[in-house]
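Quick illustration, no need to memorize.
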Amino acid sequence: MVDYGRRRGDDLLGESNFQAQLNMQYYDAQRVFLQIADYTGDDDPWQRYADAAESTYKTYLEKNDFQIAGYMRFPHGLFMDWRRNGDEQSREYLFRLRETGAFATPEDPAYNRLWRDSRYSREIAYAIETQVLAERAGAPAQTYRKDLYVDMALDHIDAWLTGDFGHNDEQWRFCQAFMAGLTASALIAYDDHLESTGRDRDPRVLARIETLSDWLWQTMWVAGVGGSRGDWYPHESSTLGAFEYVQPSVEGVGSEDPAPDLNLLIAPMYGWLYAQTGAARFRDRGDAVFAGGIAMASLEQNKIFNQNFRSSFDYVEWRRHDASAVED
């Protein structure tokens, strides 16, 4: 993490082309670098890298008057910068991020129907996270909107589990395991926020994520493989493995080859389930997912580095849960 993080941060500092900088920031580099700073206890160089990512992202928001694509909604770095460094502009931008851009108005009847299609799962996941973090930063709750987003995300999980996508477009009848991981992370953030603010958890979240994690493991997990993408070989260790990139293969989307670059976007749901239930299968499966990602993911690109360290810190924290495991 530290070795490759310095390389990726130096790449960002040394880049002068704005579009290239924006690509390096993708998946919220500001969040990633601030998390590394917190985890290691070292501000330098991570704060400098985070500042560069912040400047790039804020410039992007300003240039587009916050009218951005749903897959470019990255609230965590802004929230962390406000909480960690007292940057009130970051807090203001977080609030504007919630109100503006694509996927900001789920109450519109047309969008309400359309966004229940699982092809929009990433955008809805990011919208949920933005709602939660804006509330945590002091914005008034938008309960109706947030509830609509959550209902949509649960519909996405149901589509992946049942194969009933509500349409016959073969180009969009599939599951990408990392998209499922993003949806799970967003629902977990929502459910944890309910509890942290003195409300009852949403029982649908634990039930759906438990079923989703079992389904992913049974349907898309490939154990006993090693190597790098495109060069797979059998491996004697069953703890090395990865989820298929997509199930089933779709032309223009990808194949069912394992994709360890994305393991650490999926591992957190297993850690959270272990922390919630104490069930040994979630701990053991999560460890296998985590180990496969650490051993085999390529960190040579900023985007992939950011994907790997976006939420893997959450897995480490939940994995420390000391509840007695229940063999099952």
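The chain has a mean pLDDT of 94.
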